Amino acid sequence: MLKRISKLSLRLRTFLFFLFLGLCVPLIIAGGFFLAYGHILAHNDPASSLFLFGAATSAALIGCIVAIALLFDINVASPIQGLIRDIQTILHGNASHKVELDSGKYLAHLPETVHDLARQYRRQRIEVTQAINAATSETQEQKKTLEAVLKDLHQGVIICNLNNQVLLYNQKALSLLHVSGDIGLMRSLFRVIDSPPILHSLRRLRNRLAEDRFQDHPDGMSTSFVCATLDGRYTLEARMTIVLNEIERTPESYILTFEDATEELNALGKRDHLLREATEGLRQPVANLRAASEMLENADNIDPDMRDRFQSVLVVESHKLSKKLDELAQEYHGLATTHWPMADIYSANLLSLVTLKLQDQDKFTVVMTGIPTWLHGDSHSLLLALDQLLHRIHDANGVTKFDIQASHQNGKVHIDLIWEGQPLSSSKIDSWLNVPLTDSIGGMSLRDIFEHHRCEVWSEQLDHQHSRLRLPMLASHRPTADHTSEQLPSRPEFYDFNLLSNPNEQFAELADRPLSDLPFVVFDTETTGLKPSAGDEIIAIAGVRVLKGRILTGESFARIVNPKRSIPKSSIKFHGITDEMVKDKPPAQIVLPQFHDFAKESVLVAHNAAFDMKFLKMKEDDCAVRFDHPVLDTLLLSVFLHDHTTAHGLNDIAKRFGIEIEGRHTAIGDALVTAGIFQRMIPMLKARGIHTLGDAITACQKIVEVRAQQADF
């Protein structure tokens, strides 16, 4: 009998639902009538019988309607809704998603039809993809050739649109500009290069184009100029070329190629200075010597006192001339040693070499402290310099115990030698600088080494007990990522939406912008536990930028954080991060401001975002930052997009979208998975009428309200 019913058509089954409802109405009314009639015969009370008739009939009708409605929802409406979600997933998220046939067994051939349609859609999509791949193979080869050429160029290359936003850059550009996080796709060029020379050159070229002078001009649509990095530390010899639209001959973008001319220009300035000193500076003492010698030669009967005075002039001017020649020789030595090969150095490696060099000397106890970082320099000469300084401080103050550390501040990596006692005077430090160092190349002195590294050493009071000698080094911007691979259990869902809203005024204008145009930072945290209010702390945080639907894996952030507390064993067995792994890592007070800077001008995205944001919010006062960015939650968006299922864990959603998972339960791994999910969600949200950031936040708020109401029952 059931098999026969399951073969009924959908239209007939729907007709039977309502036919059954229509038949129930007269039957219920008739039953109520006989019940009321029997009551009248038994009690002779027409009023109460009428009330009994109305109440019984109403209750029966309501119960019948509700029961039939539930059957209709379970067997027809809900399966149809599930099919709609399946179709949306196939169209906008995962073309390989399979339609569940069992859930729609009473919908006649509708599930099978949708399944066949999806199969044909996948086949056609594969064919279209193959055709596109075949048609663009030549373009890809040209792209690879261009990338190889850009990679091997000794010049920095940056391509910008006419709004001075970066469209492309090569690795050499990062090296020459000495930046990493400040430059990025669609970010302003003027974050790293001073704007006036760029704007002036761009104006010159556009005027040349407007006046139609570029065709006869020897440089065409190019011009050379000198500019500087935003901090003024590096001078660049640059060339700008405007790219024209081939049809309309209008500017579309410009290409900037450049080299670091800092050393060459400084050397030229020093050479000019030396030439002036060798001519104008020496002219007066030479003239005095010549005059005094001529007077002594031509005055046979000169007064003895006068002769002594002329001889004194000869002695004084000779000393002046000798001193001036020594100064010129020292300047020339510094100029000759300006160019020096350097490389990126991990401070922990450098400082450990210093401690190893001194470990056999009983008079020293050197402890390496602080947070290791990357710097740029010559490891060997720095090792000799630090060793010499430690010995000099010991000889001057009798200090035997030192802390040695490196810290990154204001674009510099500061190497500090810290001791208990008073700071050193500038004159004392200056007296050490010109002594040649043993084992140094060419007999270099401390001054030579510091000039190579553009370093000016000084001593200062650190606190009421300690002093330090500080050496500011050049920083190296090397992206780092920490990896763990242990599995963590699913986190409980957090729905405190106050943590995900109320962005400050600078982000208010983003509410009406399309999601596809916004810059996002998708991030994740690993923690010591699940209760931030009870003392749990962040032990890892990572993020990756998403721009215009593209995941920019090269612009990522990944740090392990020292929680300044022991990590519970119950937590270690899941994520694998131990106390030993975090003891030399920076605390949240250092890492979270760095992450805040990485995520500036972006919308934050996370899975179960209220959980991560709770940890960030609780650290705002300690870190002196405010995480008042707009926030989107992929868990809430998944509930909105796929309300026919309860599977909204990160693994479940990734499987639903066909995203391969690597590095699961590491901060950077989960951030990348979440970024992939969010990337797939954007077109699905658009199909559901969610176009702007404001629309997406409103959708998340509605889901939170529904979840809160469900929790009350």
Structure report:
The structure is a single chain. The chain contains 21 helices and 17 strands. A hairpin with a 4-residue loop joins strand 1 and strand 2. Mean pLDDT is 77; it is low at 479-489. Strands 6, 7, 8, 9, 10, 11 and 12 form a seven-stranded mixed β-sheet that branches. The two termini are 39 Å apart. By secondary structure, it is an alpha+beta fold. The longest helix is centred in the first third of the chain and has 47 residues, at 46-92. Helix 18 packs parallel to helix 20 (667-687) and helix 18 packs across helix 21. The protein folds into five domains: 1-152, no CATH class; 153-260, 2-Layer Sandwich (Beta-Lactamase), CATH 3.30.450; 265-336; 343-475, Histidine kinase-like ATPase, C-terminal domain (Heat Shock Protein 90, 2-Layer Sandwich); 497-711, Ribonuclease H-like superfamily/Ribonuclease H (Nucleotidyltransferase, domain 5, 2-Layer Sandwich). The protein is 50% helix and 17% strand. The protein has helices at 2-6, 10-43, 46-92, 110-152, 171-177, 195-210, 262-298, 304-336, 347-358, 379-397, 426-430, 446-452, 569-575, 579-582, 588-598, 609-618, 620-623, 634-641, 650-656, 667-687, 693-711; strands spanning 156-161, 166-169, 222-228, 235-244, 251-260, 343-346, 365-368, 374-377, 401-409, 412-420, 458-461, 466-475, 519-527, 538-547, 550-560, 603-606, 631-633. It is elongated and about 165 Å long.
CATH topology of the largest domain: Nucleotidyltransferase, domain 5
What is the class of the largest domain in the CATH system?
Alpha Beta
Give the overall average pLDDT: 77
| Poorly predicted sequence stretches spanning 5 or more consecutive residues | 479-489
- CATH-defined architecture of the largest domain: 2-Layer Sandwich
Please tell me the total number of domains: 5
How many E strands? Answer: 17
Task: Profile the largest sheet.
Answer: 7 strands, mixed
